[in-house]
Fold each of these.
Amino acid sequence: MMNKLDNKHILKALLRGWGVILLLPFLLLSFTACNNDDDSTTQWRLDNTAKYNEIKADPEWKELKTDNVEGPSGVFYKNITEKEVIPGEHPLQTAAVTINYTGKDYTGTVFDAGTNATFKVNGVVRGFSIALQNMVVGEKWEICIPYYLGYGTTVTGTIKAYSTLFFEIELLKIDQYPK
């Protein structure tokens, strides 16, 4: 009886050892794939940072200010409105807005677009919300949002981590809440 028990333990130990040996190539491949992703993510982050810094240095782009003590927002914009706009109210954070928009990454690849789309101002990424709160109905802006005011360090759909976001936004309508 003792020999059978010892043999079972030996067999289990051997199988465990072989299991590790058989899994080793897969573990190495997984580790290599992770390292490649880290390299490509690092390059993506560097490229996005370079593009954002280029925008910051371009005098055609203006930095939006926030109403709180944070000071400059980090969001840059160009007013590309083609018609005269009557000054009016800005959407509150609690407002719903109707807009036309196109979202792109720094390479110009479109990741989202909408026509007559309605959103809550506080229901979008922080940088987009900051821009909307500074617009008036009829304005059309191109905005640049740094990754930390966009989707941050996480992958969201087709948007990679550390993505600098570019949007073209036309504000069509504001429904203020509360009125």
Note: The longest strand covers residues 110-120.
Amino acid sequence: MLRFVAFLFLSLVACTSPIDRLKKTRNCERCDLRGADLSNLDLIGVNLREANLSGANLSRSNLLGADLTGADLSRANLTGSYLTTNLTRANLTQASLHRANLRNARLDEAILRAADLRNASLFSVSMRNTIVEDANLEEADLRRAQISGGDLSRARLCRTIMPDNREDSSNC
């Protein structure tokens, strides 16, 4: 009997981990997912508002329509991910977004300091008051991006397609 109770207790604890909660309910607002392996997952429409995903592996995950408003994604691996999502006020400091698809994403007031955005699609993104200093935008596509209040002068621009369709190679 004691073993059964212990098993039941451990099962309940395991089912309430933030990762299990996210997978089961698709809602993990303010969850602590630091360092979590969420790679190759279908996370369409999930709620991760203000979640701590620092150092998490979200490579090749589909986050279409997800809400990552205010999430901490610093040092997260988002390589090859699909991020047509709300990243308003998200912290993406030193995040890897190499080959990520951020088409139509909202990056307003986000922090992309020293982020790796090489070969990323930023087509038609909204970047109002976004911090991009020291970000690597080599070969990134910023066509139709709405950039205001931000400063790209400290970002690495090399074969970068700018919002007006011209190529900028000023920092190769």
Note: The chain has one domain: 27-172.
Amino acid sequence: MRRISLAAAAGATVLALTGCGVLGDDGSPSGGGPGPDRQQPAVAGYVPLDPAKPIVKATVQTQAGGGGTLELGVAELRVKGKLLHLTMVLTPRVGDANGVSVYELNGRHGPDPTLLDTVNLKRHSVVKVGMKSLEPEYVSVRLPAGRPSLQSYVFAAPPDNVRSMDVVYGQWAPFRDVPVAR
């Protein structure tokens, strides 16, 4: 029974992360989300992320496209139940009209995000459901040059006594002591 509830929770998380829904905004079975002239429905306790205001950020070098920079930041590190959601914001300053992938930005490697719990000396990896990690596709998805893109990852939540974690993302230096929102 526990396996079924874990699979259901993971499936709901995947749907929430990808923004997929069974019904459209008006209750009709369209998979469309809000259009440019419609507001996102209000949800109690939900505060929309502002990619222009990450918690921490850095400008790092990348080898993609012959070299350039990437503005990399942590938009959110939030516990929701037994899971912890990491939202990164990436703004490539390299690439062409087709954009650039996270794989290319990271020297043709996956970003392999990791959270370090320095209180309990534990390393957290992205949650897997079967063979599927709860993270975005990083090879074929193209990020537009000069525009912020959000990337969300799901981890097991740390114990309540953990107030901050180190965030390791790709080949770049980790972000230290990023506050955990609860």
Note: The chain has one domain: 50-179.
